[in-house]
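Today's session is about reading a structure prediction critically. Students often jump straight to the picture, but the first step is always the sequence itself: look for stretches that repeat, for charged clusters, for runs of hydrophobic residues. Only then move on to the predicted structure, which in these notes is written as discrete structure tokens rather than atom positions. Here is the chain we will use throughout the hour.
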Amino acid sequence: MYTAPQTLGGPGAYSMSDTPRSVAADRPGPPQPVVTSCGSTGLVHDAYVTHLPTDVRAAFRLFAFYLRNGTLDVDLLGFDYWDALQHGSDLEMVFAVFSNVLEVDEHGRTVNDGDAQYRVAQWIRARQDPGYVVDPPFEPWETELH
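Below is the predicted structure for this chain, in token form.
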């Protein structure tokens, strides 16, 4: 369980053994922190952590932009859907569907970000229009929360 640090490295400090991330259990030995050269901030990164590929980060950025801008699949969602997403659980599901459907190839490039956006648009439309039929119907893995 996470305990807020009282002083850096002092009693109650956060350690990797406290992390809920399942990958920590798979790591050989203790984590090896690496100090980056980020000016005077002294940021510390776990040597085992890698960042999402640039293409994946760009897909999420553009998805968030289109979602908030009201331009996510305008043909399917020809209405102002933003007010409907003000509840946290709906917004959570929107990002879950996008991230579950998004596929990345072995080079870290997204291969179906348009399809992932379309499935989100279908979810929003079905949520707002009871007469709308999602085709094909959502598979359980598409709407799974992780």
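Discussion point for the tutorial: The beta strands are 33-35, 44-46.
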